[in-house]
Amino acid sequence: MGLKRLYKGVMLAALLLLTYSSTRAQSTTTLPNLSPTLAISSNLLYDATTSMNFGLELRVSETWTLKLPVTYNPWELKDNKKFKFLLVQPEIRKWLCEPFAGHYFGLHAHYGLLNMSKLTELDGVNFSGINFSYLKDHRYEGYLFGAGLSYGYNFYLAPRWNLEANIGLGYARLEYDRYECQECGKKEKTGSADYFGPTQVGLSLIYIIK
Questions:
Q1: 145 contacts 171 by C-beta, under 8 angstroms
Q2: In this predicted model, what pLDDT tens digit does every residue of 174-208 receive, in sequence order?
Q3: What residues are paired with 5 via a beta bridge?
């Protein structure tokens, strides 16, 4: 799946969520207005790494919400050093009290596109069976998919504003092509890897639209 096709899919999903929210708001069987129904968010930890991110979350029942977060890092640093990626991670959440307040548990899926090279900071790192040392001298391009479980907590800041802390653990399957140097285009290897470990970490600023 190419970047443009994935981007179009994300935009369509966001549009469907907004349409669904608008339809529920106009329905005679609308949920009580005691709890929020729609919010947007940004993960401050991703912002700190200059990774652009945006989340749209919709209340679908009294204690359930559906969230669609997207994270994108298009930047290429000097000397062809890069960690470019586009990550989509839809999640269904079960709130222990009411949506956007207190504790929740979530089930998420993820799909992402990757393009990485010259990441010398990861030299010598071997985590969950994946040897990141190759990133020092090679370029990797590919995609990942998987799923996981999460836990989070929403803190009230002010009317319409919350702060959310969350963490997730799960599985990801990586499919990649390895190129023999950071700039050339000759493919050296096609491979795959299985990852088990953290799949989410966040400290997000939430704005409740309605």
A1: no
A2: 999 988 776 666 788 898 989 999 999 999 999 99
A3: none
